[in-house]
Design a protein that fits this description.
Strands 3-1-2-4-5 form a five-stranded mixed sheet. The chain has helices spanning about 25-30, 65-80, 95-115; strands at about 1-15, 40-50, 80, 120-125, 130-135. Helix 2 crosses helix 3. The protein has three helices and five strands; from the N terminus they run E-H-E-H-E-H-E-E. Helices cover about 30% and strands about 30% of the residues. With about 140 residues, it is an alpha+beta fold. The radius of gyration is 17 Å and the shape is elongated. Strand 4 and strand 5 (about 130-135) form a beta hairpin.
Length: about 140
């Protein structure tokens, strides 16, 4: 079994808040992340796939194909967007890094696993240099 990882980047804005809470409670719970004027991050996304490589090609999956899947199913939907307002798969969800990581995994699983013998192992999402979430589909 071999594991390979592709890194992609996107920029997005969001706001951490609950509409059913007062501005004061949102500020108390989410701090600066509840800013009514939004805030943004330069996200780094790491997508790891696993499987048995083909000795004919030397690949598990052609990295050009993996790059295109990530671009089509994730980056194009997220880059320079507002996670709270513009992203269909985040509709009705808190725009936390943790939930975004899970939803990205869900977006990528089927198109990656359409390749015979290739499985999505994990998605790791860095919101900042110091903060990240990783999801294994569990």
């Amino acid at each position: 079994m071999i594991y390979i990882t592709r890194r992609e980047q996107f920029n997005a804005a969001h706001r951490m808040y609950r509409e059913d809470w007062s501005e004061e409670k949102n500020a108390e719970v989410f701090g600066k992340c509840a800013n009514p004027n939004w805030h943004g991050h330069n996200y780094n996304l790491f997508v790891t796939v696993k499987g048995n490589l083909s000795y004919e090609t030397g690949y598990l999956i052609d990295l050009k194909d993996l790059k295109q899947i990530i671009k089509d199913y994730v980056v194009e939907k997220l880059d320079h967007k507002n996670l709270n307002r513009d992203v269909d798969f985040m509709e009705g969800k808190m725009a936390s890094t943790e939930l975004l990581c899970i939803e990205i995994f869900k977006q990528l699983k089927a198109p990656i696993e359409a390749y015979e013998g290739v499985f999505l192992h994990s998605v790791k999402l860095f919101e900042t240099e110091n903060n990240s979430a990783e999801y294994f589909g569990e």
